[in-house]
Amino acid sequence: MEYSFIQSIFSGELISNLQCLNCKKITKTVEQFSALSLELPEIKKQGFFKQFLNNQKQSITLKECLDYFYEPVIDSLTLCSCGTRSGKRQYSFQQQSNLLCIHLQRFQNKNQKDKKHVSFPIKDHNFQEYFNLENEQNYRLFGIVVHLHDLGGDHFETILKYKNSQFLSIKDEIIQIVSQNYVEECEALLLFYEKVDNQIDQFKASLRKNLQNQHKMIVNQELQLKDEELCYLPHFWYEQFLYLAKPPQIITSHLICPHNLLKPDYWDFRIEYENAKSVQQNSQLDSNTSFTTIGEVQNPNSPVNMEESSAQKQLQLTSIIIPKAVCEFLIEKYGGGPIIEKNIKTCSACTENAQQMSRRRKLERQLIIKYENLQGYDRIFVIHEEWLKKWQTYLYNSKSILQKNNLFGYPPPGEITNYLLLDKDQQIIQQKKEGQQFLMITAPIWHILQEIYGGGPSISINPHQQQYEPFKLQMDDQLLTKELKTLYQNCINQYKCEIQQ
Ligand SMILES: [Zn+2]
Ligand SMILES: [Zn+2]
């Protein structure tokens, strides 16, 4: 799973209980949330006199919004196994987040903002009743986003907790200290709470201090340990450990490759790639026919082995160095891992694989371009649109996906899935339409794709029974297609490794 910093501090879990109104079956599902979005209930009708007393302000409480959120709603979309689409859905909390973001839905009605006042706890507050918890759980307000309804568009004000229970209001360039009364009266759109320890945890407090000291001593070289006694601790975790009530797991697995080494990043791969290209150019090979170079073993004196890799530099920028023994203890206590030792090497095999895949993709793209607009062939072959899309994303990986800790890019598309377009009589299912569920391609392209990826079957639509010359690839391209097919198999195996991790 991809790791997200925001997710790790803002996410909590809800349990949705859906009871079918027909067969009464209850389906439980866990839903992740990173912000709790609450509808604002109507203000309860009051007697004339009470209404008169309260008339100064139309107000509801945050607790009322949450109670409204827990009320069961009718779900007429989800299909039950008994065939009914009518159930009663109700939410409860499974896990609270370290930082709780509450969104008050003031724009349910697009044309009109719901301006009713919602009162919310400002000082440390026990949310036990708010979340129907078994134990006490305190939260502290630390920020508010207010939507200001100026003429001519949206405008926002941020209110932040400041020292000595004061608050700061930030409106563009105007920053000022505001009273608690000001905060109470504001028309909040987003509320930010942080979880606070119910009692001061002596053990955690001393652990924090200890870790801070050790880190400082290593930085100042007062504590000198050998490289093999040191390891990296992700900075994001360190910060959360120092400031949040419940630090998450120490997630490092996304940094390690299937060979248990440091995963190279996009830039390591890029350097290798440029290097290899210049070697190729020096030997005067035509890139169109140089498929034999794909399998070439990399130069053992590659920069990845010689100096610090980009992945290593990144690791240094985003981690602190602590003694390995301390890290082992922290991982045992908070979960996660594995340990990343200070002298970890960047994996050159992974760089080579990524590079090979990239070259393979390039050769396939060149082959397609060569035959795409070949004269004398019309688009009479059907191809499943969904498969073609997967193939496209696989073949044309964007730079951003490669940079995002995903050196191998999008996964391969698998066998051609044209059979999904056919009914049991091998005819195209009536509802499947050209331009929607399938597209048309020429014989050369169909030939190449089926040769490389397999699957099928071959479906052609030729209403005027036009005659075409039988298509055959040029000899060297036939070899190239075979090579691409073999390399494709290697590529699939790489993905299997990556996924098993
Ligand atoms: Zn049912
Ligand atoms: Zn590796």
UniProtKB/TrEMBL annotation:
Keyword entries, A-Z: Hydrolase, Nucleus, Protease, Thiol protease, Ubl conjugation pathway
One cellular component term from this protein's GO annotations in UniProt: nucleus
Organism superkingdom: Eukaryota
GO annotation terms (biological process): protein deubiquitination; proteolysis
GO molecular function: cysteine-type deubiquitinase activity
All copies of domain DUSP, residue ranges: 355-465
Domain USP residue range list: 1-196
Catalysed reactions, as listed in the record: Thiol-dependent hydrolysis of ester, thioester, amide, peptide and isopeptide bonds formed by the C-terminal Gly of ubiquitin (a 76-residue protein attached to proteins as an intracellular targeting signal)
Subcellular localization(s) per the UniProt record: Nucleus
Keyword Protease listed: yes
UniProt signal peptide: none
Record-linked PROSITE patterns: DUSP, USP_3
UniProt-listed Pfam families: DUSP, UCH
Coiled coil residues, start to end: none
EC number: 3.4.19.12
Protein name: ubiquitinyl hydrolase 1
Organism, as annotated: Paramecium sonneborni
Organism lineage: Eukaryota, Sar, Alveolata, Ciliophora, Intramacronucleata
